[in-house]
């Protein structure tokens, strides 16, 4: 499949809300929550006023002019928050484009950008049952800490 990965345009920031919903891990046999769930403060921290914070960065994957995925980072007090110098990672692809290596390519490109920008590390939070854990490990994330349901993972960028 042919696709490109590029920086997000300001006019596309509104897409982050759609992809935020797509990023919610829903285990097999569990009913998806309503789309309105992204309006709660715990989710809005990922997208609210995106682009107005110093550390906001996002990349888009597109094919044939259609946006199919987004990876974005910002320093925020989210589930994967480590400290105020560590950006948190978010990634989402439409279901039909998962498992094709696009997400891995998006993550590698964002990691490269963060390394070049001098960040020491980047973090994320992921449910233990999420198949994406393996992808995160493949691109250099390690388990930093965990609770019953989730891992907080870190990629130490300057190693």
From TrEMBL:
PROSITE patterns: GNAT. Coiled coil: none annotated. Residues 3-158 form the N-acetyltransferase domain. CDD domains: NAT_SF. It holds the Pfam family Acetyltransf_1. This is GNAT family N-acetyltransferase. It comes from Clostridium simiarum.
């Amino acid at each position: 499949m042919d696709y490109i990965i590029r920086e997000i345009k300001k006019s596309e920031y509104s897409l982050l809300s759609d992809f935020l919903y797509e990023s919610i891990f829903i285990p097999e046999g569990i009913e998806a929550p309503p789309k309105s769930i992204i309006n709660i403060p715990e989710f809005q921290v990922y997208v609210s006023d995106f682009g107005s914070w110093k550390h906001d960065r996002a990349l888009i994957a597109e094919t044939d002019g259609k946006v199919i995925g987004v990876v974005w980072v910002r320093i925020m007090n989210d589930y994967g928050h480590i400290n105020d110098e560590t950006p948190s990672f978010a990634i989402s692809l439409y279901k039909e484009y998962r498992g094709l290596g696009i997400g891995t390519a998006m993550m590698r490109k964002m990691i490269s950008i963060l390394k070049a920008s001098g960040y020491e590390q980047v973090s994320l939070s992921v449910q233990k049952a999420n198949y994406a854990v393996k992808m995160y490990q493949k691109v250099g994330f390690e388990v930093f800490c965990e609770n019953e349901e989730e891992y907080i993972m870190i990629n130490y960028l300057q190693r």
